[in-house]
Amino acid sequence: MTTVRLPLFPLNSVLFPGLVLPLNVFEERYRAMMRDLLKTPEDESRRFAVVAIRDGHEVAPSARGLPDRTAVTERGPAAGFGDDPARTFHGVGCVADAATIRERADGTFEVLATGTTRVKLLSVDASGPFLTAELQELPEEPGEEAGALAEGVLRAFRQYQKRLAGARERSLATGADLPDDPSVVSYLVAAAMMLDVPSKQRLLQAPDTASRLRDELTVLRAETAIIRSLPSLPAADLTRAPTSLN
């Protein structure tokens, strides 16, 4: 099994292979990470791993105040993640390749990266200025009937989009070309659906493409039926997401 050690960037979201990830980097631990990545020559990949946070805070408490007036100031690479960061994160993440790392005048960074490969989290090291992790690359196996399942998922996804646009009183952009590669379809649909982090995480760590597509087909049909019966959709994201300094 291929293993690799990379900088680790925990987020309150799931990154899928092929999906673009914009980041506004302002905490010192992640600024240090970006400065280190900039040492890599431009013609080489500037890679780091993204994992979804299971139990913890994306932004470490830096002072008493919002969102928690009793929060104690925390410092260091593992701030906000407890004594054992590995237990705080989901066990499967995604490698991100940073195409753009731009430092602003105030020392913060604007980053644009793309998800590439799924990885299993083996261990976390908090001894440096930022977290690093030992990771095992996970192959993407097609599974049985992935092609037929992808066609069914695309049909269901188009119906889901239509229902979602109608429930939110938005116009649906048509004519967009959707991919036909089953693994690409599985990741695109997983990223586009309105699901919570645990649901997206289950899709990311599916054992193969066919299993992921099968789960997506079930979810799409259920969600489309729910949307059909509702006159409008609640702002669920506002109730799930904590107040962030971003």
Written account of the structure:
The protein has 246 residues and is an alpha+beta fold. It is built from seven helices and six strands, in the order E-E-H-E-H-E-E-E-H-H-H-H-H. It has helices spanning 28-37, 85-88, 146-167, 182-192, 197-204, 209-229, 236-240, and strands at residues 3-11, 20-25, 47-52, 92-103, 109-125, 132-137. A five-stranded mixed beta barrel has the order 1-3-4-5-6. Helix 3 packs parallel to helix 4 (182-192), helix 3 runs parallel beside helix 6 (209-229) and helix 4 runs parallel beside helix 6. The protein starts with a strand and ends in a 6-residue tail after the last helix. Mean pLDDT is 85; it is low at 62-66, 169-175 and 233-246.
Salient structural properties:
single chain, 246 residues, alpha+beta, 5-stranded mixed beta barrel, disordered C terminus, Lon_prtase_N
Helix content: 25-40%
Q: Mean pLDDT, rounded to whole units? A: 85
Head-to-tail CA distance between termini: 37 Å
Strand order of the largest sheet: 1-3-4-5-6
Number of strands: 6
Main beta sheet: 5 strands, mixed, barrel
Structural class: alpha+beta
Shape: elongated
How many whole angstroms does the radius of gyration measure?
19 Å
Order of helices and strands: EEHEHEEEHHHHH
Count, helices: 7
Low confidence ranges: 62-66, 169-175, 233-246
How much of the sequence lies in strands comes to: 15-25%
Protein name: Lon protease-like protein
InterPro entries: Lon_prtase_N, Lon_prtase_N_sf, PUA-like_sf
Domain Lon N-terminal: 6-224
Pfam families: LON_substr_bdg
